[in-house]
């Protein structure tokens, strides 16, 4: 028995030694240690061993099993590192790795999030409206007469149905007031469309953010304070803001708002960022007409509205010289905002 154990072990070790692939290694393991394996069969002979020899033979069998198992393990490891080395052959491990490119938010998205954040802190809620509008919500309800140049086919995209691509987000003012009673304090960011010649400062689609605040006692002072605060949050607390009298059909009085820009190496200059004004009573009247009530009676409520170009704000913030960069999806431009 002892000799058999010895020779089985010697044979097994020699067999394992000669192995050069995983498959044969597994076969060898089964052939030696498996149910029908050579060593397993030997172990079965234990029952015929004389009682006084059992302990010694048992130990020898165990030792053989351990030695063989260790040899199998060692071979497996050797084969594995051989395989690894082969896989790495011809690969230069000192080459720098490939970097992962992280995407980033588009500058317009960054500006929109920021603008919404500031105005929400002041109590404005988000409102929405369709980009394909009717003439009523885009013009008539906003007190814009039939012959106003903005209604011209040369300035506005019309569909055959008579609908149009909204030329400003001010239509959301009307829809919001039609849908609910005062007080109203909303902002509506979104696209607006105009048939402009495309150049460094004009696109046929741009991004506006409209605001509307209507309540019992809204004053011009509220309008000024709100927009000054907004622009100083946006561009820094030192930012100078100027209200310049202007005309819009839907507000009276109306203003354009400029901020003073201090670009490096240039004389400071005023740049227009928004239009605003006190809601014209005619606008309230036409909303009431549509609502069939007097919820927005000009005797009971006043309000202010503003609309600004988010593209313009982004261009000011980052000194972007050409608005077309905002829609060209050139990664050399976009990755600067990562
Ligand atoms: N709708 C105006 C524009 O597109 C901006 C504006 C909005 C002006 C609200 C006054 C009040 O230029």
Automatic annotation (TrEMBL):
> Which reaction does this enzyme catalyse, per its entry?
tRNA(Phe) + L-phenylalanine + ATP = L-phenylalanyl-tRNA(Phe) + AMP + diphosphate + H(+)
GO BP, one annotated term: phenylalanyl-tRNA aminoacylation
Under PROSITE patterns, the record lists: AA_TRNA_LIGASE_II (PS50862)
Cofactor(s) recorded in Swiss-Prot or TrEMBL: Mg(2+)
Keywords assigned by UniProt?
A: Aminoacyl-tRNA synthetase, ATP-binding, Cytoplasm, Ligase, Magnesium, Metal-binding, Nucleotide-binding, Protein biosynthesis
At which positions is Mg(2+) bound? 252
Q: What is its EC number?
A: 6.1.1.20
Q: How many cofactor units bind, and how? A: Binds 2 magnesium ions per tetramer.
Q: Does the keyword Cell membrane apply?
A: no
Identify the residues that the record assigns to the Aminoacyl-transfer RNA synthetases class-II family profile domain, covering every copy. Answer: 118-316
Root EC class: ligase
Molecular function in Gene Ontology: ATP binding; magnesium ion binding; phenylalanine-tRNA ligase activity; tRNA binding
InterPro entries named in the record: aa-tRNA-synth_II, aa-tRNA-synth_II/BPL/LPL, Phe-tRNA-synth_IIc_asu, Phe-tRNA_ligase_II_N, Phe_tRNA_ligase_alpha1_bac, Phenylalanyl-tRNA_Synthase, tRNA-bd_arm
Localisation: Cytoplasm
Kindly list the GO CC terms recorded for this protein.
Answer: cytoplasm
Quaternary structure, per UniProt, is: Tetramer of two alpha and two beta subunits.
Q: Family assignment?
A: Belongs to the class-II aminoacyl-tRNA synthetase family. Phe-tRNA synthetase alpha subunit type 1 subfamily.
Q: What is this protein called?
A: Phenylalanine--tRNA ligase alpha subunit
């Amino acid at each position: 028995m002892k000799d058999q154990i010895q020779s089985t072990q010697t044979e097994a070790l020699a067999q394992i030694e000669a192995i050069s692939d995983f498959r044969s290694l597994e076969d060898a393991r089964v052939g030696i240690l498996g149910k029908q394996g050579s060593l397993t069969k030997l172990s079965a002979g234990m029952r015929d061993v004389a009682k006084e020899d059992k302990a010694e033979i048992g130990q020898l069998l165990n030792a053989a099993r351990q030695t063989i198992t260790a040899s199998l393990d060692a071979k497996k490891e050797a084969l594995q590192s051989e395989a690894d080395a082969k896989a790495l052959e011809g690969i230069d491990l000192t080459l720098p790795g490939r970097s992962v490119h992280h995407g980033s938010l588009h500058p317009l998205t960054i500006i929109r999030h920021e603008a919404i954040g500031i105005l929400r802190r002041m109590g404005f809620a988000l409102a929405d409206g369709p980009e394909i509008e009717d003439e009523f919500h885009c013009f008539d309800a906003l007190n814009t007469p039939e012959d106003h140049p903005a209604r011209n086919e040369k300035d506005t995209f019309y569909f055959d149905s008579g609908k149009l691509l909204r030329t400003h987000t001010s239509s959301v003012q009307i829809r919001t007031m039609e849908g609910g009673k005062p007080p109203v304090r909303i902002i509506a960011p979104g696209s607006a469309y105009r048939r402009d010649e495309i150049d460094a400062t004009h696109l046929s689609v741009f991004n506006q953010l409209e605001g509307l605040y209507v309540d019992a006692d809204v004053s011009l002072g509220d309008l000024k304070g709100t927009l000054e605060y907004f622009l100083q949050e946006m561009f820094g607390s030192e930012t100078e803001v100027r209200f310049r009298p202007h005309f819009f059909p839907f507000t009276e009085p109306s203003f354009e708002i400029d901020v003073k820009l201090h670009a490096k190496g240039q004389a400071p200059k005023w740049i227009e960022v928004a239009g605003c004004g006190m809601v014209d009573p005619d606008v309230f009247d036409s909303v009431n007409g549509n609502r069939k009530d007097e919820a927005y009676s000009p005797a009971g409520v006043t309000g202010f509205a503003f609309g600004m170009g988010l593209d313009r704000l982004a261009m000011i913030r980052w000194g972007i010289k050409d608005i077309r960069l905002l829609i060209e999806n050139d990664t050399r431009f976009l990755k600067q905002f990562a």
